Amino acid sequence: MTRQIAVFAAVLMSLCLLAVPGKAVTPDEILDNPVLEQRARDISAGLRCLVCQNQSIDDSDAELAKDLRLLVRQRLTEGDSDTEVIDYVVSRYGEFVLLKPRFSAQTLLLWGMPLIVLLIGAAYIMMGRRGDGQTPTVLTAEEHAELEKVLQSRDQDP
């Protein structure tokens, strides 16, 4: 019985290791300078694969991701800073390429809209509970008599 548990545990651990995402960077892409390579990896981890859309270019096997990884490494070897490399990629592919969007007026609107809708909804509910703020009017004697006549005539009609 213990042997079966050990075999089961070994198989389970092997399957878990298969689920760990592998890096898609191939050996021919790796830079000789370890500092530049680490900078390239850091930048690549923050850029979205435009084919996969939920993976970084560092994790993706898509051709476009490989091209972007090579572009990042090329820009770094030309002497660009990390910010310049990211700005260059964003200028070519748009803000969508960033896995963590930058703070701007557009992202403020994007992140703030749920709060705005929540506040508007709360205000609407609070206004609905109060009504229009007016006290109900009391019928005058003439209005009451007219109402009685209308109700009696309605009851008499077949």
Question: What would you say this structure looks like, in words?
Answer:
- The model has no long low-confidence stretch (mean pLDDT 82).
- This protein is an all-alpha fold.
- Helix 3 runs antiparallel to helix 4 (82-93).
- It has two domains: 2-97, Cytochrome C biogenesis protein (Helicase, Ruva Protein, domain 3, Orthogonal Bundle); 105-156, no CATH class.
- The chain is built from six helices and no strands.
- The protein has helices at residues 2-19, 34-45, 63-77, 82-93, 105-130, 141-156.
Topology:
Layout: H1 2-19, H2 34-45, H3 63-77, H4 82-93, H5 105-130, H6 141-156
Helix pairs in contact: 2-3, 3-4
Second rung of CATH, namely the architecture of the largest domain: Orthogonal Bundle
CATH class of the largest domain: Mainly Alpha
Q: Please give the alpha-carbon distance between the first and last residues.
A: 88 Å
**Count of domain modules:** 2
CATH homology superfamily name of the largest domain: Cytochrome C biogenesis protein
Percentage of residues in strands = under 5%
Shape type: elongated
CATH topology of the largest domain: Helicase, Ruva Protein, domain 3
Q: What order do the SSEs take from the amino end to the carboxyl end, as H and E?
A: HHHHHH
The main pleated sheet reads as: none
Q: How many DSSP E strands?
A: 0
Low-confidence stretches: none
Q: What integer is the average pLDDT?
A: 82
Rg: 34 Å
Q: Could you estimate the helical fraction of the residues in percent?
A: 55-70%
Number of helices: 6
